[in-house]
Design goal:
about 450 residues; Proton glutamate symport protein
């Protein structure tokens, strides 16, 4: 039996994460060796991203309809994202990655930032709140904005719960639709290696490895800070909740690699939701916490906001006092949420944040515009890990987590062995004349 099982296991090169890694590596080589060819690969990455985005609205709706735990989740999001902002500010003040840069505002390309300045002005806190309510129910799905879809889904879920038996037929239809949607996701994810290849080839071909050199200190500081935040802060939260952060990341390796290659966490959202459900989190908790977390729990973006803002000030030899840094911190708390869902959201939010300190010319943003794509990949990965941890924590707090299943999955026990173990346990409990001799572990 063992031999037969071994023969049935897929080859290592058939694993999705291996194929995605190969796609990322090939994309880097193509973009480096043939930049023009690499830049021409952008449509491949864009098509994959569009394929995933076209289905995200339905994924969110079908899973959020039965969702709950909103209040606790929002409090958790605010505490952890605020901590991430604080970590970014502390690192910027201690490491001072912009010191000695001596940038001259007169020589910077201010025009390159103007587009982002306009977008930042159009997405303030008031616009963010008003935008939660869609013009029509169908408009929410047509635009694909996360918060309006959640708003509609929560209304549906509330009414269905109030209808009781009369609402069950609709609930059954939505559940069946959800199964179809996740079946589509399984098909689309097979194109992930191509999507990662196209996105990475474009990034390297368009911006070049040379664009990294002048700002290597900032990039290294950001990535090291992100890694430490995940290992220390997320690791401590995970340990408190009863699981190992590194085992969770290993379990989510495909989603992490796809996110890294595409520099966007959106592409992994449907797959992440399904995996967290498989892990043992209830579908209702996953359905509400994951999509909401993508808006309110952007830990990677939060670290980037304060770190990059203080970098620009340091690079332009501008000393910020405590009140100015506090103002940046306060606005960043709102800006990183108000710009959510917009292309280049992290950079737009940063522009909006720096605008509260007139001493810093917005032209200084041109310093980091060229490397934003590389920073975006790191932001997206940290954001996704943060939301995965938040979901497991919320499921645990609500008693909606199958802890035994989670431990088995994170330990790498195949699903068929888990099922066999559960069946065996049931037989031990139900066997006549055997009651009281012991319970399965």
């Amino acid at each position: 039996m063992a031999t037969r099982g071994a023969e049935q296991r897929p080859r290592w090169y058939a694993a999705l994460y291996v194929q995605v890694l190969a796609g990322i590596g090939a994309g880097i080589l193509v973009g480096w060796i043939a930049p023009h060819t690499g830049e021409a690969m952008r449509p491949i990455g864009d098509v994959f991203l569009k394929m995933i985005k076209m289905i995200i609205g339905l994924v969110i709706f079908c899973t959020v309809v039965n969702g709950r735990v909103g209040g606790k989740a929002l409090i958790y999001f605010e505490v952890v994202s605020t901590l991430a902002l604080l970590v970014g500010a502390i690192v910027a003040n201690v490491v001072r990655p912009g010191a000695g840069f001596n940038a001259d505002p007169a020589r910077l390309d201010a025009a390159a930032v103007e587009t982002y300045v306009g977008q930042a002005r159009q997405h303030g806190a008031v616009d963010f709140l008003v935008g939660i309510v869609p013009n029509t129910i169908f408009d929410a799905f047509a635009k694909g904005d996360t918060l309006p879809i959640i708003f509609v889904a929560v209304l549906f879920g509330y009414v269905l719960s109030r209808l009781g038996e009369r609402g069950k037929p609709v609930g059954v239809v939505i559940e069946a639709l959800g199964r179809v949607v996740f079946g589509i996701i399984h098909i689309l994810m097979r194109f992930a290696p191509l999507g990662a290849f196209g996105a990475m080839a474009y990034t390297i071909g368009r911006f070049g490895m040379g664009s990294l050199k002048p700002l290597l200190g900032l990039i290294a500081t950001f990535y090291v800070t992100g890694i430490l935040f995940v290992c220390v802060v997320m690791g401590a939260i995970s340990r408190w909740a009863g699981f190992n952060i590194f085992k969770l990341m290993r379990y989510l390796k495909e989603e992490l690699l796809i996110t890294l290659g595409a520099a966007s966490s959106d592409v992994a959202l449907p797959s992440l939701m399904e995996k967290l459900t498989t892990l043992g989190c209830s579908r209702s908790v996953v359905g509400l916490v994951v999509p909401t977390g993508y808006v309110f729990n952007a830990d990677g973006t939060s670290i980037y906001m304060t770190l990059a803002a203080l970098f620009v000030a340091q690079a332009m030899n501008i000393d910020l006092n405590f009140m100015q840094q506090a103002a940046i911190f306060g606005v960043a708390m709102l800006a990183c949420k108000g710009a959510s869902g917009i292309t280049g959201a992290g950079f737009i939010a940063l522009v909006a944040t720096l605008s509260v300190v007139p001493d810093i010319p917005l032209a200084g943003m041109a310093l980091i515009l060229g490397i934003d794509r590389f920073m975006s990949a790191g932001r997206a990965v940290v954001n996704m890990i943060g939301n995965a941890v938040a979901t497991v924590v919320m499921a645990s707090l609500e008693g909606e987590l199958d802890a035994n299943r989670m431990r088995s999955v994170l330990s790498g026990i195949p699903m068929e062995e888990q099922t066999a173990g559960i069946a065996l346990g049931a037989q031990v409990q139900c066997a006549p004349g055997e009651a009281g001799r012991g319970t399965p572990n």
